[in-house]
Amino acid sequence: MQLEEDHLGPHLNGKHLRPESLMMSYGYNPEWSEMAVKAPIYQTSTFVFKNAEEGKAFFELAYGLREKNAEEQLGLIYSRLNNPDLEILENRLRFWDGAEDAAVFASGMAAISTTLLALLKPGDVILHSEPIYGGSDYYIKNILPKFGIQSIGFQACATTEEVAQLLEESGVADKLAMVYLETPANPTNHLVDIEGCVALARKHSTEEKKVVVAVDNTFLGPVFSHPLKHGADLVLYSATKYIGGHSDLIAGACAGSAALMKAVKGMRTFAGSMASPWTGWMLMRSLETLKIRMEAQARGAETVAAYLKQHPKVEKIYYLGDLQDNPRQQAIYNKQCTAAGSMISFDLKGGEKDAFMFLNSLKLIKLAVSLGGTESLAEHPASMTHSDICLADRAKMGIGEGMVRISVGVEHPEDIISDIEQALAKVAVAAAAEA
Ligand SMILES: *Cc1c(COP(=O)(O)O)cnc(C)c1O
What we know:
Elements: E1 4-6, E2 9-12, E3 15-16, H1 19-22, H2 52-62, H3 84-97, E4 101-105, H4 108-119, E5 125-130, H5 134-143, E6 150-155, H6 160-170, E7 176-182, H7 194-203, E8 212-216, E9 234-238, E10 252-256, H8 258-271, H9 277-288, H10 290-310, E11 314-318, H11 327-336, E12 343-348, H12 352-361, E13 366-367, E14 377-379, H13 391-397, E15 403-407, H14 413-434
Parallel strand pairs: 5-6, 5-7, 7-8, 8-9, 13-14
Antiparallel strand pairs: 1-2, 2-3, 4-10, 9-10, 11-12, 12-15, 14-15
Helix pairs in contact: 3-9, 4-8, 10-14, 12-14
The site of pyridoxal-5'-phosphate has 15 residues, from α4 and α5.
Protein name: Methionine gamma-lyase
InterPro entries: Cys/Met-Metab_PyrdxlP-dep_enz, Cys_met_metab_PP, PyrdxlP-dep_Trfase, PyrdxlP-dep_Trfase_major, PyrdxlP-dep_Trfase_small
Family: Belongs to the trans-sulfuration enzymes family.
């Protein structure tokens, strides 16, 4: 009664099963725990060896002291190295991106920092899109230089030719070790052409050194965007967002080829940045509804965006379902996104005062940073998520004082719109009182 499996995963009647069909039970055997249909939480720090010889053999494999025999499995040793909840979860998570392996971390930042530390060394250069998540930006610009790793940033809306030229002009193109992308960019939803960046990375790769392309896929992945299919080497996630999806946990993930993931997991062991068994279990619960949540949120966002677009107090919206005025972005969208997701930013015609009046007036939508959860959230990028970017850079990125960002949840879209409608009505009152 077991599914047959090849290197691409389980199949039935000659067809590979889709990820959403595998999230409930793949990789877990009820016989491991009293026939429970769900994997239990293996809330344990360490695992008992049957005998000393087994302990020795497990360590030999874990530390790479010898090659694995044909049927040998990596044994359970200690929960910083491996734990059943994390292993089952990672074996499920990889299917969404068609990756050979995945690793789960204590946070998105733990996934990103551990991956960069695993793959970069002193003297290396990392080329990255801008804007990127504030924590990643800080890590690349303030922490990596301590280890002699230099960075070059390019605007997310730049063309591949412009990026190539920027790299040439830097004079350090020969030191390029990684291209790091975040697409769509937060909060402007600018898309970066993954294939263009992969070609650039390949051009600067040599026999001895492959330039790795890593993509933070938090905003659309792992359902609506699959960077590995466009040639990227690694995908990174804040699993706190859509993957967790209920705003009740902090976690991160990385997925890619077995060879790269071996290096990333090796660093994770020594950074101690793995997720706990409890978080692993929560994420398995979340993966079961990942696709239907993301689809419902994307449908809701489409309705909300259409409402915002026609509203007289809204100057401009930044939404992936509304790119018709930008053929170049639309072409990238058509190539690498299968839906527009549920992140919408918009500019109010006034400045901070009007944005604050709007945010303070919301009743159903919560005023909070973070995104991707079942509840709708709204925030003010200029004074919150992007406040540590200097004014000039914020202006370059298109993040104004009147901008509001909304993460659309699974509430009825008409109820979300009712809330937005009454909050926008208050903005009018504020503007009139001022005049
Ligand atoms: C939230 C976020 C991160 C950081 O993740 P944490 O789980 O908060 O550590 C990284 N990248 C993006 C795009 C994010 O939205």
